[in-house]
Write a structure and sequence with these properties.
The protein is mostly beta strands. It is built from four helices and 14 strands.
Length: 309
């Protein structure tokens, strides 16, 4: 895991060079100290906008939506999402951190009318270590560069286990949703997965203004690889075996044991997806089948560790 930078930061949370709240150096977690205006909880009588009543040109940009959120709560932006709700209504949903509170906002995608502003105490796992990170705008640009022509429907700053602080972006292109993980330190793309998604398809058909009929490098069932033989391969393409992948995963977890392993394609490369159990913790590893490198790690706490279903 990358070393956490325990320094004061100023996160640029708009596209301009506007000042942002200062961060307390007394803790390695983001604590906003700048005084702000009123941020009392409120709920407007209006509801989310039905997509039958809007055009693509009516929808405010992600950048403008960030400005709306930070005007309501001048803190540090944690996440922003263009959300397609039930009955095909849409709104923007954001989370802004101010002092020890997380403010969850919902507002109109057309004029920024605030529908809801509720707050709750920031959970430790949702806070972000202090550091100098790229801005939301830079993360958005990196995601669009990775998926040219895509619409960034969500951006979230996260402290990811074994990856450090990252931006997770959801990008819609055609009928697919791309999950792009971006290093928050330097903008490096760490992961890019994709799958068919009903919200992406709905946006593409009814809201984009210029629907995409084909998706570059779209996955298909014919692309799914066959697992390599556990015997020594004579092919010029080197692939680690299932047993080797298990050994690599077990080497990361003391007293662990394998509960599941699959061989699959992760964007442009083949991977072993290995799950390991140790006590109440379940670990998931994506291991590059060509190099044996661990390219993704996740960890979840399970109360009932006897249930492996």
């Amino acid at each position: 895991m990358k070393n956490t930078k325990i320094i004061a930061i100023a996160l640029a949370v708009t596209l301009t060079a506007a000042a942002v709240p200062a961060v307390s150096a007394a803790s390695d977690r983001l604590i906003i100290t700048q005084a702000t205006g009123s941020t009392t909880s409120s709920t407007a009588s209006q509801t989310s906008v039905s997509t039958s009543s809007i055009k693509a040109s009516d929808i405010m940009s992600l950048d403008k939506a960030m400005e709306v959120a930070l005007k309501e709560v001048p803190g540090v932006l944690k996440s922003i999402e263009f959300d397609v709700e039930d009955f095909r209504c849409v709104d923007y949903q954001t989370e802004v951190h101010y002092e020890s509170l997380a403010y969850e906002l919902e507002f109109s995608v057309t004029d920024g009318t605030i529908y809801e502003n509720k707050k709750e105490r920031i959970e430790h796992e949702d806070s972000i270590p202090a550091g100098s990170y790229i801005t939301f705008a830079q993360a958005r640009d990196a995601a669009v560069k990775e998926v040219p022509g895509g619409f960034v429907s969500k951006l979230e700053l996260q402290d990811a286990y074994n990856l450090g602080v990252v931006y997770e972006a959801q990008v819609w292109l055609g009928d697919y949703e791309y999950d792009v993980v971006i290093d928050a330190d330097d903008g490096t793309i760490l992961r890019n997965n994709y799958e068919r998604d009903s919200d992406a398809a709905y946006y593409n058909k009814y809201l984009s203004g210029s629907p995409v009929s084909t998706t570059p490098q779209a996955p298909s069932t014919s692309d799914r690889p066959s697992a390599p033989s556990t015997s020594t391969s004579t092919s010029s393409t080197t692939q680690i075996t299932r047993e080797q992948a298990e050994k690599i995963a077990l080497g990361q977890v003391s007293d662990g044991f394998i509960t599941d392993i699959e061989y699959d394609r992760d964007h442009a490369r083949t991977v072993y997806e290995v799950e390991v159990r140790s006590g109440n913790w379940e670990y998931s590893f994506d291991i590059d089948a060509s190099t044996g490198d661990i390219i993704k790690t996740e960890r979840d706490y399970e109360d009932d560790w006897y249930d492996f279903d």
